[in-house]
Specification:
Blueprint lengths: L1 E8 L13 H11 L3 E7 L5 H11 L2 E9 L5 E5 L3 H13 L8 H4 L3 E3 L5 E4 L12 H10 L3 E4 L9 H5 L10 E4 L20 E3 L15 E3 L5 H9 L3
Parallel strand pairs: 1-2, 2-3, 7-8, 8-9
Antiparallel strand pairs: 1-10, 3-4, 4-7, 5-6
Helix pairs in contact: 1-2
The structure holds zinc ion (ZN) (2 copies).
Length: 238
């Protein structure tokens, strides 16, 4: 079975995410685009995953709970989980490792948590877009311990990626896949780039606006349209 995917989408919980990135809008836009499976991956938090999963279930879109974690090396890592509980466990670990800085919504943007009706049920006051004290090794190990998959985020970017920040992809760092962004090809990256050390590539949007969500261009071969099967397919070597 072939699924069109986008495994890196922010919601309005990320201060840099547009206010229109509500659970209903994200799910409906993904369906309009022709996608079969998405993940919501807010910065260091997963407060809108439950609503997006609920909305997706009703609308016929598979939604994975996830997060984009910023490590102490300022490396961005996309973590995807089989269950909301596992994702929330990781959220607790990450948030305990975040510095106690308050968000300044007027400067950085609002951090809204919504329900499945897109009603605002809470505002996250903690600054989410900042590095936690966990190393990239800690994050990979912890996500794997919780049964999730770890994707090196936007490895082609010149900041906040494992390759830009560490200089290379350490062989003992067991990522399940590496994410290339939309314009990676134009910057000289390909799925078989040597810098990826044979890692499978995932093409996600890192969408902060509805229009940026992936077009149906990138396909994942899965056994069944279930989260466990999607994670298994990401783990499989490319
Ligand atoms: Zn990022
Ligand atoms: Zn992102």
């Amino acid at each position: 079975m072939r699924l069109f995917y986008d495994f890196h989408i922010h919601t309005c919980l990320s201060p840099c995410g547009d206010a229109d990135m509500t659970p209903n809008n994200v799910v409906n836009m993904s369906l309009i685009k022709g996608l079969d499976v998405i993940a919501v991956t807010d910065h260091n938090a997963c407060g809108n995953a439950e609503a997006a999963m609920q909305v997706g279930k009703e609308a016929g879109l598979l939604v994975l709970p996830g997060m984009e974690i910023e490590t102490c090396e300022e490396v961005h890592v996309v973590a995807l989980f089989e269950t909301l509980d596992a994702c929330r466990e990781m959220e607790v670990v990450v948030q305990q490792a975040l510095p106690p800085i308050q968000n300044k919504p007027e400067i950085f943007g609002e951090q809204w948590i919504l329900n499945a009706e897109d009603d605002c049920i809470a505002e996250e006051s903690r600054m989410l877009v900042t590095a936690c004290s966990l190393s990239v090794y800690d994050v990979v190990a912890q996500v794997h311990k919780l049964g999730g998959v770890v994707i090196a985020a936007h490895v082609d970017k010149s900041a906040y990626s494992v390759i830009s920040n560490l200089g290379f992809l350490p062989a003992d760092l067991s990522f399940d896949a590496a994410e290339l962004s939309k314009n990676a090809e134009g910057k000289g990256w390909s799925d078989t780039d040597e810098r990826l050390c044979g890692l499978k590539t995932i093409h996600s949007s890192d969408a902060h606006y509805l229009g940026d969500i992936n077009e149906p261009m990138h396909v994942l071969e899965v056994e069944t349209k279930e989260i466990s099967s999607v994670l298994e397919a990401i783990r499989k070597k490319g």
